[in-house]
Design a protein that fits this description.
There is one protein chain. The protein is α/β, with parallel strands linked by helices and about 240 residues long. The protein has a domain of about 160 residues: Rossmann fold. Helix content is about 35%, strand content about 20%. Helix 4 links the parallel strand 4 and strand 5.
Length: about 240
């Protein structure tokens, strides 16, 4: 199978590319370094010739809702248009569990825009939604730090290992389009303040429990799966 990975040099993408190649698939890495700019469309049509499935794991550091929405909507639409013109039969999108329940998070608002574009398009699709990566817990602490203190609401998180997400992406990409969404989450549920204390035991910052929600969530359970989901035995903290 020939697979195009958009964002193939990032945290998820690089592991996904390696896994697919180990399993014998022909992988095309979509990145500017490889001469493909999904945001502008440069090189995209040529890169998708002969491709069976596209896996979109693109990301942006922009947290502004308008900028993030513009990025995710534009890149998704560019991919879908190129897929239609080259006959790609399956589009796999990596999104975030609870993205539609976090209106205060600009990045997740953008992810919802990408999901909407995929569902409105004509290419058969599968959406994989993952909870927050365990590898990003230190970054979450940095986001919540004010004057050297980590202000942590008791928002519930179910962090997942990146390799678990890659496992599901491989299974999804090499299977038939689902036409729906599959959630993946880690095996443990934590209140955010407790997670930070357990995951960062040597961090010198005070972790202070505060009222409210974190990461733009509308409720305490907005960022954990509320229905069926996939999980595994990999744990983030013990």
């Amino acid at each position: 199978m020939r697979v195009f990975v958009a964002g193939g040099r990032g945290l998820v993408g690089s592991r996904l590319v390696a896994r697919l190649r180990t399993e014998g698939h022909d992988v095309v890495v979509g990145s500017r370094a490889a001469g493909v700019d999904v945001l502008t469309g440069h090189g995209l049509g040529d890169a998708l010739v002969g491709v069976d499935v596209v896996v979109d794991v693109l990301n942006t550091p922009d947290l502004d809702p308008e900028a993030a929405t513009a990025f995710f909507r534009t890149t998704t639409q560019r991919l879908l248009a190129a897929e239609e013109s080259t006959g790609v039969g399956h589009h796999v999108l990596l999104s975030v569990v609870g993205a539609d329940r976090a209106p205060g998070n600009g990045h997740l608002v953008g992810k919802v825009a990408a999901e909407d574009a995929v569902r409105d398009g004509d290419v058969p699709f599968s959406v994989v939604r993952a909870t927050q990566f365990g590898e990003f817990v230190p970054t979450i602490a940095d986001w919540l730090t004010v004057d050297g203190v980590v202000l942590a609401p008791r928002t519930l998180l179910r962090p997942v290992a990146v390799d678990d997400v890659v496992d599901l992406l491989v299974t999804t990409a090499t299977g038939a389009p689902t036409g729906g969404t599959t959630d993946v989450a880690g095996p443990q549920v934590f209140a955010l303040d407790d997670l930070l204390r357990r995951a960062l035991p040597d961090d010198p910052r005070e972790i202070r429990t505060v009222e409210g929600q974190a990461l733009g969530a509308e409720s305490a359970d907005a960022l954990v799966p509320l229905g069926e989901f996939r999980t595994s035995s990999r744990t983030i903290v013990r």
